């Protein structure tokens, strides 16, 4: 086939709309597809008119369909609600209840956007899928590996959420925006006369309206008849001194400073949540510093699994500046010991740890 | 938008049908020059009224009833709603009705949903068992839209009436495909666009003396049952569609079904009860139906799977889960519904495309562990 079919994952936002427009302008054989991931009406008690976190809203599908119509490309909405709930929403809730701070975007990328979606695209005859992610994919002729690289626009780089992509997934994916700055993407949207050119960026976690995790978790547990045990407890220091009470440990995350409601002579931060004792442990800023941790379920991208200690820059949050560290293999190949050269603030269980060499993503895993 | 570069083959006539050229020709004068209001006293009004009543007679002849028993509506959904909300008391209906009945009955509130058999048919016995002393309406579709299965509305109607309940049947998928036995039926819905008329017109048969409660109020149009100036062109179109000659032996459907069964392993026909001759609903084990639908669409074939939700995504069919299929089996099913435009050659090409798509989807399916 001289012009293979490519499927563009269209969210209705400016980025993926520009991807569709760009590929169409290049003369590619493209179709647009929108993933229906979550039913916004499902937890009516969370209904809000707020502009944030409106994943899979009818408005977004309307926008995506309109863009596809303007571009003159076939367009379909595909229903992945079951997979999304199984691989993203349920683990998100379970993790919070276990006192961890999960990143659902990574799970969605690993199990839905780059798995179910790629399979659906392949099923309908599409060779590749293109998305609006800010990241770059290259192919290394020497070691025959697909490599993931940071986006040229560092402020938009999304590689932190893409560390779980397999070689197979990368081989079928296209990130046309990886070389572009966000401002240029908007300019291109205007040039292509796309009606979404001025649409705001998506915020927070798409299925949680207004970023209120606590309300979402509670509403979901009620809907699913999950036992909503008493999660209230004490706020304590590392020495066990009780400073106050909290309304549920699942609404606290490591590093959090605001909303503790306890007074102390100096700023206090959450340094751990303990589901077993229902305690939220707080301490000074220095208490958040950690030098080493274990990354589990490690996925190696641009290099094969390491067998010897390896130097890298490691990022432990999306907004964290990658810090120099040594990676050491453990007895289990999927677990890697990470030792920073300098202590880092708020290493949080459940978050990702992504290993970089300059702009190259070596791989990444989950902080245990 | 339908792209002109790919030749199109339409196999989704249970969703809607093309408007027949004779129908367009008959209705056009009422769009171009004959614009009168059928309620007006003057000549323009009288001409419109005559056209409206001629259309009503055509619909009545088609249904085998008196013109006085035909109420024009905006379509099947409105006809169904009129029937449901005419029930002062408890309603008995089936779990595999069209959403126009299911949602209306839920809104009505006093309802029992009866499960169909695995063959897709709703038995008169199961309906009768659900009838209570306060039951005032039984509503069971004549033909199921997704399976094409036919219910014995004579038996269900007789059972309903023996308990003093009115019997309504949604005949949207039966009209034009079967003779309509109104002997034990009190209310019967039809829809124009399933019959080669345009969208926006339907009719409700109301047996003389059966009390129908209006849902909208205004003038005394349609025997006071349905207020609002009648759309003469659309009513004329429905009348003309009812007068069309229709022949469907089912040979093409049988050929399609036999071709798929012969060329694709592990397929099952859903709902093996008596069926109308144009519909087959086929389950392809271990195939993502949504992917097959899109793949076929991109090759020019229009088929259907499940029901579209508000975003346009496909949801597992309540009809297929209603006859006992799992959600996965429902998602692996495709409905093919034939119509006057289909040819043997189209059917042969469809069989080839379905076989190729099923083989491709099964080849890639095991790579992803759906755990």
Task: Please sum up the structure shown.
The complex is a heterodimer of chains A (368) and B (371). Chain A has 368 residues and is of the alpha/beta class.
Structure description:
The complex is a heterodimer of chains A (368) and B (371). With 368 residues, chain A is an alpha/beta fold. In chain A, α2 links the parallel β2 (29-36) and β3 (75-79). Helices cover 24% and strands 29% of the residues of chain A. Chain A has three domains: 5-132 and 176-211, 3-Layer(aba) Sandwich (Rossmann fold), CATH 3.40.50.620; 231-283, SH3 type barrels; 289-367, Beta Barrel (Elongation Factor Tu (Ef-tu), domain 3), CATH 2.40.30. The termini of chain A are far apart. By secondary structure, chain B is α/β, with parallel strands linked by helices. Chain B folds into two domains: 9-18 and 247-367, Aspartate Aminotransferase, domain 1 (Alpha-Beta Complex), CATH 3.90.1150; 21-242, Type I PLP-dependent aspartate aminotransferase-like (Major domain) (Aspartate Aminotransferase, domain 2), CATH 3.40.640. Chain B is 36% helix and 15% strand. Chain B is built from 13 helices and 14 strands. Chain B has helices at 21-27, 29-32, 43-63, 76-84, 99-108, 124-130, 153-162, 232-242, 251-263, 289-298, 318-322, 327-331, 344-364; strands at residues 9-10, 70-73, 90-94, 111-114, 135-139, 166-170, 187-191, 202-206, 267-269, 279-284, 301-302, 307-308, 314-315, 333-337. In chain B, the strands form four sheets. Chain B has a seven-stranded mixed β-sheet with strand order 2-8-7-6-5-3-4, with helices on both faces. In chain B, α1 (21-27) runs antiparallel to α8, α3 runs parallel beside α8 (232-242) and α4 (76-84) runs parallel beside α5. The longest helix of chain B is centred in the first third of the chain and has 21 residues, at 43-63. Chain B starts with 8 loop residues before the first strand and ends in a 7-residue tail after the last helix. At the A-B interface, β2, α2, β3 and α4 of A face α10, β13 and α13 of B.
């Amino acid at each position: 086939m001289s012009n293979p079919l490519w499927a563009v994952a269209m969210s209705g936002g400016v980025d993926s709309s520009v991807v569709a427009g760009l590929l169409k302008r290049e003369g590619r054989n493209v179709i647009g597809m929108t993933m229906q991931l979550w039913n916004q009406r499902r937890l009516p008690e969370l209904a809000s008119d707020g502009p944030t976190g409106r994943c899979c809203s009818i408005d977004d599908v309307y926008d995506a369909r309109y863009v596809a119509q303007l571009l003159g490309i076939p367009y379909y909405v595909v229903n992945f609600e079951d997979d999304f709930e199984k691989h993203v929403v349920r683990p998100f809730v379970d993790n919070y209840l276990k006192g961890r701070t999960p990143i659902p975007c990574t799970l969605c990328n690993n199990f839905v956007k780059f798995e179910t979606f790629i399979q659906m695209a392949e099923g309908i005859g599409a060779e590749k899928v293109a998305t609006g992610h800010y990241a770059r994919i290259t192919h290394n002729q020497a070691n025959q590996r697909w490599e993931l690289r940071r986006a040229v626009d560092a402020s938009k780089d999304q590689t932190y959420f893409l560390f779980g992509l397999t070689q197979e997934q990368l081989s079928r994916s296209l990130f046309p925006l990886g070389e572009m700055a966000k401002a240029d993407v908007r300019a291109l949207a205007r040039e292509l006369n796309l009606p979404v050119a001025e649409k705001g960026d998506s915020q927070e976690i798409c299925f949680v309206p207004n970023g209120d995790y606590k309300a979402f978790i509670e509403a979901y547990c009620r809907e699913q008849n999950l036992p909503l045990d008493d999660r209230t407890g004490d706020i304590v220091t590392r020495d066990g001194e009780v400073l106050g009470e909290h309304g549920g440990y699942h609404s606290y995350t490591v590093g959090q400073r605001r909303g503790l409601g306890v007074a102390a002579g100096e700023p206090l931060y959450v340094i751990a949540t303990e589901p077993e004792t229902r305690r939220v442990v707080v301490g000074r800023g220095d208490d958040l510093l950690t030098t080493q941790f274990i990354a589990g379920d490690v996925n190696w991208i641009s290099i094969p699994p390491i067998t010897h200690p390896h130097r890298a820059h490691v990022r432990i949050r999306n907004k964290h500046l990658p810090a120099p560290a040594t990676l050491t293999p453990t007895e289990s190949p999927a677990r890697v010991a990470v030792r920073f050269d300098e202590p880092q603030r708020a290493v949080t269980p459940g978050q990702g740890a992504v290993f970089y060499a300059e702009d190259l993503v070596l791989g990444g895993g989950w902080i245990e | 938008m339908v792209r002109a570069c790919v030749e199109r083959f339409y196999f989704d006539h249970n969703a809607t049908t093309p408007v027949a050229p004779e129908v367009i020709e008959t209705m056009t004068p009422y769009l171009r020059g004959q614009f009168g209001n059928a309620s007006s006293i003057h000549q323009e009004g009288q001409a419109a009224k005559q056209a409206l009543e001629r259309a009503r007679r055509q619909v009545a002849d088609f249904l085998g009833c008196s013109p006085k028993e035909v109420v024009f509506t905006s379509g099947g959904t409105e006809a169904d709603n009129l029937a449901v909300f005419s029930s002062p008391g408890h309603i008995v209906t089936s779990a595999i009705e069209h959403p126009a009945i299911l949602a209306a009955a839920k809104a009505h509130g006093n309802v029992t949903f009866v499960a169909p058999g695995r063959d897709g048919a709703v038995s008169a016995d199961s309906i009768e068992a659900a009838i209570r002393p306060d039951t005032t309406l039984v509503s069971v579709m004549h033909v199921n839209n997704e399976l094409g299965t036919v219910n014995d509305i004579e038996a269900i109607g007789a059972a309903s009436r023996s308990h003093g309940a009115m019997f309504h049947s949604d005949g949207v998928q039966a009209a034009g495909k079967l003779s309509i036995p109104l002997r034990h039926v009190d209310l019967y819905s039809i829809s124009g666009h399933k019959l080669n008329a345009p969208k926006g017109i339907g009719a409700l048969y109301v047996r003389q003396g059966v009390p129908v409660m209006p849902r909208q109020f205004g003038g005394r149009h349609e025997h006071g049952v349905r207020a609002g100036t009648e759309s003469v062109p659309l009513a004329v179109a429905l009348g003309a569609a009812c007068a069309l000659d229709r022949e469907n032996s089912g040979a093409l459907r049988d050929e399609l079904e036999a071709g798929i069964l012969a060329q694709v392993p592990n397929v099952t026909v859903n709902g093996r009860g008596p069926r109308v001759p144009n519909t087959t609903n086929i389950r392809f084990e271990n195939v993502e139906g949504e992917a097959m639908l899109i793949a076929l669409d991109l090759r020019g074939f229009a088929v259907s799977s499940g029901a579209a939700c508000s975003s346009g995504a496909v949801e597992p069919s309540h009809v297929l889960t209603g006859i006992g299929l799992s959600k996965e089996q429902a998602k692996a099913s495709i409905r093919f519904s034939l119509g006057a435009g289909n040819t043997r050659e189209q059917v042969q090409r469809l069989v080839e495309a379905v076989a190729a798509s099923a083989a491709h989807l099964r080849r890639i399916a095991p790579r992803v562990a759906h755990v």
